[in-house]
């Protein structure tokens, strides 16, 4: 285990964010650096999508190979997040963040220069791995630097809305950059990452070196847990091509179950587990992770459907589609500086209910799609609702997932919620793709495409409804927990005693 965080320079300590929202330039700089890394991580998830046709044409990649340009990143990111979060706790958050951000910059540069499909996929996997370490390390630096309460809520709101903005604006930037050449979608993050790295080395608070023998390394847990996550993401990604009922898919899922069972057994018995299972006794943390999986999973499926619908059926260009989705990202970005105060006033549970309701309504409204839908009549209302939903739900779920967790386990809590985002995204996207293929039956006519999109939209809406149910239960549980216990009226007991006497 790492010891308590000890800043190396007095200015950061003197800011004392526990008691004041008036932060010094140094503290603001720390937050901006972490936000930049989070923005790049999220940006990379969505930015490559629009560039895929150009990449395939230049490098001669098949459709299945192109899929791995996206899936390689998700595999590294989703599969290693738990390990990344625990490494931040054990090796030092600052050290892990700096090394991983440097690897991210190098992999981005290589990705923009290679002329080989397999090498490009390898750089994408490497970027995913680096993001799996920067995301939980950055989030845990915030939660250990800013005390739980208004200061942390404000910092987390800014941080998470930067991530949501990166994910939402990735399509817009990709449309602009791809018009100049697909390689720019890989090269653009390089200077941003290097500048962030230079400032991070100066601004991030230092930690005392972990005491030898104080923590220990759960090697068996790391192997089984990471193996289970990697194989799960790989299996659901490949299931569309291999078939969900194929021996290969079922066999892989069986191995995932065996690895997951072994992981749980190991974690329950080891003295220093990779994931302390007792963390899930915190109901708020457990519900936040379930909600995170549904939020990101439903949005990943929806974005995939909308991309196909607008480009294939309505014949929009990549840039037109990117600009059409801009309102959602703009609403999230504009809300960044205000969400902390909103969370303080209304609480995370109430905002989660409102936010996930808005997301569900946005998906449901899109069920009205047809061959001649207009932007104002169909797309814009859903984008506005999705922007409102993400602005409210994304910061709230991150705050809920790290609340009530000790400093030495903030990396673990951050890794868990980020894992929930990525695994939920991978699973729901894979199922959405299967539903579209089955519904359209391989047809390319507008009617056949709509027969695939509508049931897929119902699936996405159902996933969001499941998330809404979890948030409603959480709000009810939290409300009952805070209600004061009834005070007994002893007058009636005394009166009964007098009557009996």
Write the layout of secondary structure elements.
Blueprint: H1 10-15, H2 25-47, H3 52-59, H4 63-91, H5 93-113, H6 117-145, H7 150-178, H8 184-187, H9 189-203, H10 219-242, H11 247-269, H12 283-313, H13 318-324, H14 326-334, H15 339-346, H16 348-365, H17 375-402, H18 410-440, H19 446-482, H20 490-500
Describe the structure.
It is a single chain. The longest helix is centred in the C-terminal third of the chain and has 37 residues, at 446-482. It is globular and about 60 Å long. The model is unreliable at 1-15 (pLDDT under 50). The protein is mainly alpha-helical and 501 residues long. It is built from 20 helices and no strands. The chain has helices at 10-15, 25-47, 52-59, 63-91, 93-113, 117-145, 150-178, 184-187, 189-203, 219-242, 247-269, 283-313, 318-324, 326-334, 339-346, 348-365, 375-402, 410-440, 446-482, 490-500. The protein folds into 2 domains: 22-205 and 274-480, MFS general substrate transporter like domains (Growth Hormone, Chain: A), CATH 1.20.1250; 219-273, no CATH class. Keywords: Antibiotic resistance, Cell membrane, Membrane, Transmembrane, Transmembrane helix, Transport. GO terms for molecular function: transmembrane transporter activity.
């Amino acid at each position: 285990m790492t010891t308590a965080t000890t800043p190396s320079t007095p200015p950061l300590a003197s800011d004392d964010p526990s008691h004041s929202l008036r932060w010094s330039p140094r503290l603001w700089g720390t937050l901006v650096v972490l936000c930049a890394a989070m923005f790049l991580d999220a940006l990379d998830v969505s930015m490559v999508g629009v560039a895929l046709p150009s990449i395939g044409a230049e490098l001669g990649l098949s459709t299945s190979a192109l899929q791995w340009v996206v899936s390689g990143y998700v595999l590294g990111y989703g599969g290693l997040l738990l390990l990344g979060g625990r490494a931040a706790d054990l090796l030092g958050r600052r050290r892990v963040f700096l090394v991983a951000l440097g690897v991210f910059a190098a992999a981005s540069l290589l990705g923009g220069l290679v002329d080989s499909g397999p090498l490009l996929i390898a750089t994408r996997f490497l970027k995913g791995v680096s993001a799996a370490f920067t995301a939980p390390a950055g989030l845990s630096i915030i939660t250990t630097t800013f005390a739980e309460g208004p200061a942390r809520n404000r910092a987390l709101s800014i941080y998470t809305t930067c991530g949501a903005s990166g994910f939402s604006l990735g399509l817009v930037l990709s449309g602009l950059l791809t018009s100049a050449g697909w390689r720019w979608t890989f090269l653009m993050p390089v200077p941003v990452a290097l500048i962030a790295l230079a400032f991070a080395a100066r601004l991030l608070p230092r930690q005392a070196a972990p005491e030898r023998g104080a923590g220990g390394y759960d090697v068996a847990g790391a192997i089984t847990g990471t193996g289970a996550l990697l194989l799960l993401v790989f299996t659901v990604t490949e299931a569309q091509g291999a078939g969900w009922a194929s021996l290969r898919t079922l066999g892989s899922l069986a191995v995932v179950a065996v690895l997951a069972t072994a992981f749980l057994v190991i974690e329950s018995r080891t003295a220093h587990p990779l994931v302390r299972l007792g963390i899930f006794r915190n109901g708020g943390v457990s519900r936040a992770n379930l909600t995170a999986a549904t939020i990101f999973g439903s949005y990943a499926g929806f974005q995939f459907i909308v991309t196909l619908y607008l480009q294939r059926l309505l014949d929009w260009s990549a840039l037109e589609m990117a600009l059409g989705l801009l309102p959602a990202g703009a609403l999230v970005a504009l809300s960044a500086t205000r969400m902390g105060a909103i969370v303080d006033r209304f609480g995370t549970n109430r905002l989660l209910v409102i936010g996930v309701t808005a997301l569900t309504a946005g998906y449901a409204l899109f069920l009205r799609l047809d061959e001649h839908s207009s932007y104002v009549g169909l797309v814009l209302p859903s984008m506005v609702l999705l922007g409102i939903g993400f602005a409210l739900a994304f910061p709230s779920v991150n705050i809920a997932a790290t609340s009530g967790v000790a400093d030495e386990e903030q990396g673990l809590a951050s890794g868990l919620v980020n894992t929930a985002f990525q695994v939920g995204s991978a699973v729901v996207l894979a199922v959405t793709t299967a539903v579209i293929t089955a519904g359209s039956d391989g047809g390319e006519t507008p009617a056949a495409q709509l027969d695939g999109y509508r049931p897929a939209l119902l699936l996405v809406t159902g996933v969001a409804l499941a998330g809404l149910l979890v948030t409603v239960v959480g709000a009810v549980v939290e409300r009952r927990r805070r209600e004061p216990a009834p005070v007994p009226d002893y007058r009636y007991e005394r009166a009964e005693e007098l009557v009996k006497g």
